[in-house]
Amino acid sequence: MKNNSTLMILLSTLSILISASTLTSIYAQENMTDTDMPKFFAIQHAQSASISKVNATTNFLELHDVSDVILFSDRPDRIVKTESTQQFLDRWYDAGTDTKNSFFSDPPNAALVIDDQEGQDVAILELFEPAYDYDSNILVYNFNYLNNTNTILPNEFGETTLVIDSSHPMHIHL
User: Fold this and answer.
1) Containing structural domain, residue 158
2) CA dist list (Å): 15 to 8, 21, 31, 87, 117
3) Beta strands in the chain (DSSP E)
4) Residue 88 placed within a domain
5) CB 70 within 8 A of CB 163
6) Domain-located, residue 77
7) How far apart are the first and last CA of the chain?
8) Which of 69, 112, 159, 168 is the most buried (most CB within 10 A)?
């Protein structure tokens, strides 16, 4: 795992940011409009994963032993928060078909980063239809490859990180 140190540095940095976030003053969200709400990126880390083909365009990603989701916003807010995988997915579906604020209606893009002995592979995906089994700590997504991703990923792999974008403001209780 040649680039495992890169992943460890990223996770360590995010841990420091999470600790520092408790010192950050957070403003009240009750009176904010969607344009005022910060947009968050989500990071999900798994100890192992597998990919299988569903049909010609859709694939199945299974993440094993997933950690809590790390959420962070960009400038000027710079908010960092963690939440459980279940809380993250609850918000995914809570907005229902509201296209303005819903991953359900407008699936997010994500970068799937795989560290292995030969180096690091990255694939850009569109995620949809997530499901989580709390007892086995397995998270699954259906996905499509985006941007002519031509990375040939193995069917099974070890440590992986999924970085999910948020084109929509996420109503997160801080």
Assistant:
1) 4-21+39-164
2) 10, 10, 30, 19, 25
3) 40-53, 59-66, 69-73, 80-83, 109-116, 119-133, 138-145, 156-157, 160-164
4) yes
5) no
6) yes
7) 35
8) 112
Please indicate, yes or no, if residue 98 is contained in any of the structural domains: yes
Residue 126 three-state SS: strand
Query: Environment class of residue 142 by beta-carbon count within 10 Å: exposed (0-12), middle (13-18) or buried (19+)?
Result: middle
Q: How many domains does the chain have?
A: 1
d(CA 109, CA 76): 23
Radius of gyration of the chain (CA): 16
